[in-house]
Each structure stands twice: as structure tokens, then as C-alpha cells.
Amino acid sequence: MSLELNDVTLTYPDGDGVVTALDRVSVRVAPGELAAVIGPSGSGKSSLLAVAATLIRPDSGRVTVGDVDTLGLRPRELAALRLSKVGIVFQQPNLIPSLTVVDQLLVTEHMRARSVREARASAMETLAAVGLAGKEHRHPHRLSGGERQRVNIARALVGRPSALLVDEPTAALDHDRGARIMELIEEATRTFEVATLLVTHDTEHLGTVARVLEMRDGRLRALDPA
Ligand code: ADP
Ligand code: MG
Predict the structure, then answer these.
(1) Is residue 178 lining ligand 1, measured as CB closer than 6 Å?
(2) Whether the CB of 52 sits within 6 Å of ligand 1
(3) CA angle, corner 166, sides to 165 and 167, nearest 5?
(4) Residue 47: its pLDDT value, please?
(5) What one-character-per-residue DSSP string does 184-218 give?
(6) Closest CA to 217 of 21, 13, 12
């Protein structure tokens, strides 16, 4: 149930020409593995996540999510695939102010058409795994920034996706909170055996990450372990 990009190229229109955001990118992330992609602004990191999430179709190349080849899928089929196999952690948590922590998770569970009982059990288990046991019935304004980011991560994991895509998770946090969020993402990757692709321009918290790749001008290459 891995995540795989094979020889993926993505261009955007740019005046009379095009800008190449992804230039023949290949990467495979195994279940339970975290791969971190670093690179300067404009290097193609967000484009990489959007293509891996099947939100943007590349010009060429192949994207495989949890053993499903997405190449020939129609938009409706891609939407169903995203709901069942892809978890996305955007930089801003975007929690709904009027909902408690557990209800933030149940919104998407409702779309997955699970039974209420099953959905609640999965939500409570996921919240415990991210360290939010006892805070399930709080509203977002009674959480710290780090706790809100934990809810964001739990919400991406509650449907037990094959792939977890994370955009700049530490950007809005101070050093200690950022370090704890990175540890949490590594731990959750193993616990839920998800293939995690994380992008960041912040190299501060990568000390414990085994696999780091670098994006430059749309090209992706592995960095040697330090
Ligand atoms: P990063 O996330 O590393 O900052 P992006 O993937 O956002 O990089 O951007 C990669 C390149 O593609 C940049 O040159 C950027 O200007 C360009 N780009 C990104 N999104 C669009 C878009 N929607 N239309 C045109 N160009 C875009
Ligand atoms: Mg970006």
C-alpha cells in the first residue's frame, strides 16, 4: 500500500510558454515510511504534494496510491480514491470553530459512510494516538497551536489512508512544538503504517528523519544520510 510517482512531469502555462514545476520526478514511499522533501520556495514542493494527492493530473508519468494506478481514473473515481486512501495535512489546520475535537474528525467519517459507532471508535483511537485523549470534547479555541495541529493530523488519519501528505507542518510553531509535531508525524507513520510524504523548507527538525530528498527547479534527488 505504498505511494509511488514514476517519471512525473508537470508544467503550468506561463505567458507564451510554460514553467516546469516537476521535471521527471520519481519517488516511492513504503508503508510505515516517512520521506521528507526539502527545497527553496518555488522549487515545486507544493506541486509534488498536489500531484501525489491526485488533486492535479501531471502532463506525463504515473501516480500510484495504495497500489491503485490513478492514470486512467475519471474525476469521480479520483475523488473516491482520495476519500479512502489519501490523508492531507495542510499548513493551516482550518478547524471548524463550532465543532468539538472529536466532531472535527467525524465530519469526514460521515462522508466515508461508516456507521456512527465505527466512526466514533476510529476517531477516539486516532485522537489517543496523537496525544489528545481527554481533550476530545474541547472546542478549537480551548486548544494550543500545537494541539490544533494534532487535530489536523488526526483528521487526516481517521479514515486510515494509505498515503499521508504533509505541507510545512512546523511553519507556524515555535522550535519545541515544531520538534514534537515532527516526532508525532514519524510515530503516526509507523503506528498507522501509512506512506508519508512531507515537504518543508525548514531543515531544523529533520535530525531524526531517515530519508531526506531535495527538490530543486522541479528535480528531486536523494540526499546522503548525514
Ligand atoms: P514550492 O511549493 O516549492 O514553493 P510550487 O510547487 O508552489 O513550489 O511552485 C513550483 C513552480 O511552479 C514555481 O515556479 C511556481 O511559480 C509555479 N507555479 C505553481 N503553481 C502555479 C500555478 N497555479 N500556475 C502557474 N505557475 C505555478
Ligand atoms: Mg509551497
Answers:
(1) no
(2) no
(3) 125
(4) 96
(5) HHHHHHHHTT-EEEEEES--TT-TT-SEEEEEETT
(6) 21
Which residue has 509511488 as its cell numbers? 4
CA of 75 to the centre of ligand 2 (A): 24
Residues in the chain: 226
**pLDDT per residue as tens digits for the range 53-67:** 999 999 999 999 998
Residue 130, amino acid: V
pLDDT tens figures, 121-132: 999 999 999 999
- CB atoms closer than 10 angstroms to residue 88: 19
User: Mapping DSSP to helix (H, G, I), strand (E, B) and coil, where does residue 59 land?
Assistant: coil
What domains does the chain contain, in order, with CATH numbers?
Answer: 3-98+160-222 (3.40.50.300)
The protein residue with its alpha carbon nearest to ligand 1, atom 5, reads: 44
Q: Is 39 in the pocket of ligand 1 (CB under 6 A)?
A: yes
Residues near 53 by beta carbon (within 8 Å), at least 6 away in sequence: 82, 86, 88, 163, 165
Burial 189-224 (b: 16+ CB within 10 A, else e): beebebbbbbbbeeeebbeebebbbbbeebebeeee
Count of beta carbons in the 10 Å neighbourhood of residue 103: 16
Q: Which residues pair with 18 in a beta bridge?
A: 13
Pairing relation of β-strands 86-89 and 211-216? unpaired
Taking the CA of 13 as reference, the closest ligand is: 1
